[in-house]
Design brief:
Elements (H helix, E strand, L loop, with lengths): L1 H31 L3 E3 L7 E3 L5 E2 L3 H8 L2 H11 L9 E3 L6 E4 L5 E3 L2 H8 L2 H32 L1 H19 L5 H8 L27
Antiparallel strand pairs: 1-2, 2-3, 4-5, 5-6
Length: 213
């Protein structure tokens, strides 16, 4: 019994030493990885920030998860900037790990290569061009409608525009007629037989010549 107790004590001490060494390495590993952190509840568990996955405080288990294909794929999703495809490709409103294309209506997985391929596809680019042209036509109609409303609300501007149009039509019908000819037409002509009235009144007391007999 004495020998068995000694062996158990040695094994316990060796395990405690290994756990202490493993704990130091674990702390250094978590501190070196910006995506890992210890839980604050005192359990010693380690959490991956990007995925929310919780792991026991064992260095071998944490290394296996971090080096796994599932974690690398998830890290690629969360680190990639999918916002550069907005507003045409946005996050799916119902499926968390998918994106939605507002141009084609397709549902896309959050995989950078697949999203890039869809964005550069011929079908996407053609539909996007049609969508832009339709928006331009709608904007042009909206501006024309707004201009009509403004013209109706300002009658003075409308009357002035009408006069300008009439004047331009008149000038177009008489291109050789100048401003001087128009002024002459407006000026009244004087009759050659019209008598010229003397200027001023005759002075009082002035002698008038008598007619000869």
């Amino acid at each position: 019994l004495g020998c068995l107790a000694i062996r158990l004590a040695l094994a316990t001490a060796r395990a405690a030493g290994d756990m202490a060494a493993d704990g130091d390495e674990l702390s250094e590993f978590v501190a070196a990885n910006e995506d890992l952190e210890f839980k604050e509840d005192g359990s010693g568990k380690v959490v991956a920030k990007s995925t929310g996955h919780e792991m026991p405080p064992r260095l071998d288990a944490i290394k296996a998860y971090v080096n796994g294909a599932k974690y690398r794929k998830a890290r690629e999703w969360y680190s990639y900037d999918f916002s550069k495809y907005e507003p045409h490709i946005v996050r799916h409103d119902k499926q968390e790990k998918f994106l939605k294309c507002l141009v084609t209506g397709a549902t896309l997985p959050m995989q950078p290569a697949k999203v890039e391929r869809h964005f550069n596809s011929k079908r996407f680019q053609e539909l996007l061009k049609e969508k832009d042209e339709l928006l331009k036509k709608k904007d042009a109609k909206k501006k024309a409608r707004s201009a009509k409303v403004t013209e109706r609300s300002n009658p003075n501007r409308k009357a002035k525009a009408k006069k300008l149009r009439a004047a331009s039509q008149t000038n177009a019908s008489n291109p050789t007629e100048g401003a001087g000819d128009q002024a002459k037409k407006k000026r009244p002509l004087r009759s050659p037989e019209a008598k010229v009235k003397p200027k001023g009144k005759p002075k009082v007391g002035s002698k008038r010549k008598k007619p000869a007999a």
